[in-house]
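Anyone? Bumping this.
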Amino acid sequence: VAVDDDIGGRFEERFDALYRLAYRVSFRVLGDRGDAEDVAQDALARAHLRWDRLSGQPEGWVVTVATNLAIDRHRHRRRRPVPRRGEALGLVEIHLAERVDLARALRRLSRRQREVVVLRYLADWSERDVADALGCSPGAVKVHATRGLAALRELLGVDPGRGGVGVRASG
Amino acid sequence: VFEHLDDPSPPEATRSTLAEVLARSARMRRKRTRAALGAVGALGLAAGLVLGLSVPASSPGQSFTAFETSSGTLATGTAVPGSDLQDVVFPSDTQGFALVVHASQTLLAHTTDAGETWTVVDGALPVSYPAQIDFSDATHGFLWGGHPSSDGSLPLWVSSDGGANWTEAPIGPVVSDVSAIRYDVWAVVGTCFLGVVDPASSCPVRVEVSSDYGRTWATTASDPAVVESTAPSFSDQNLELARTSHLDAYVLSLEPGRSGSQPSGQLAFTADGGRSWQSRSDPCPPYFDFGEQIAASGTDDLWLLCASQAAAGSQAKALYRSHDGAHNWTLTSAANAPVLTGNTTVPAGGGLPTGGYLAPYTLAHENFAVLSSKTALILPGRGAVSMTSDGGSSWQAVPSLLNAGMVGGGNGTVVFADPTHGWVSEFGVGLWRTTDGLSWHRLGR
């Protein structure tokens, strides 16, 4: 039995990679380091609780849960963060409007479309990896990704010809 | 597509991040368990009211406000819930110690009332979970394991004041297991720094001995003929030390994932306090390359659990027994269709519990307690406690533990101070005690 086929290895040994993954997708949605760390820790704690049930591929589950938590966190934010006096506007603030729109748009996708879009475009997985994680064919992933992306464009009010917020299909 | 939304300098996942995640996981589990118990309690209350029965009020317990609300280092004396104990040891039937993950710290908790209540002894230990502890008595403690230092070492820390202060012992570089029989303390030590040399190579092992509770140390006159893998590891768990007296000891080494026709484990025995070591055969077939655990009820009575890698949620396991000091071994029970070699056959019905995972999933947990040549208990990771009363041929779940609220399916510890006084902890759920080796009751909260 190959190591990759075991129940996921020790949680502690997979922790670093999974945490980086969860933080990355959370930050892309939230744009706030503290919030993204909090969401990543929450996602990993939930993964730890059900580690034996995540089979050999906890990554997909962690990405999906981290994104859902990030979207949820976004929804419950009372107000947008305002830089304090003297604090430089950083990358976070520059893309704030885009993140707000992205979180809202993701929330309105169907569950399957959101799963595919999140894994394919937020976590930057290949179609094959997404298909493996979701237990469907690469063809089905392609269909969901195309439809999800189209829905995202519509929700974001993006002109497909101009690319807008950078949501574009790629092989 | 969304690269432009990335954090240009994302934070690293540190030891304290892992500790925080484990603590959150414990809180979530505790909350779930409380909710489930609350629902059962409400049903019981309703039934009691309908039937006119008296329902006992819950006993007033400790307050855990500081533990649950503070995010910093907890002060000595802060109350700790019994449901948050990660690794428990009891040097006597009343005195116990436990590792606890709180916020980003790994702390030491202490009980003087057999586990009913726990308080912080040291709010910030010099190691991070998953670490291991042992105590000779209520005063002298030993702490090792956890994450290797940046140079690949895993030191041993010694306390002579009940765990309040810790001093690094002058042995190393990789302290893998420790066994204390009162003042007489042994440590099995890897001689190569973890992750520094080629992981495929292996390193000789030596045994260090202290006769003054770990203050001074001397290497045994000869080394056991076993080697250890030097692959990087969170907590070096591939060397195990089992002692049955001041003079008799076994050292078991495992090279996980080793392929080939030879067993992954190596076993050495001394009967003269380490002056000389003899090699013994490891009965676990090569298929069991994932974990081995050894325990003994006496010098000649050995129990060896072998575990394969786990696939599809189940893990092949086998239990071998020796009655002649590891010269000859008998396959006593098994689970999940292990692939055996030679002329050994799986006993009818298997015998061992199919659920749960044995080492290394049970990292840093004491989960194999041999009480006599007939009686033993195991608590596999993600499994429930099982007990044998026939020398390991058959294993049964312990009903009184389940009746007393143990959930099973998480991580926990089963330890005994003597053949009748024992404790089972289940991380995020609770702590249970037996005073007769058979019936269990829940302690504290």
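Late reply, but here is one note on the structure posted above: The CA atoms of residues 36 and 80 of chain A lie 15 Å apart.
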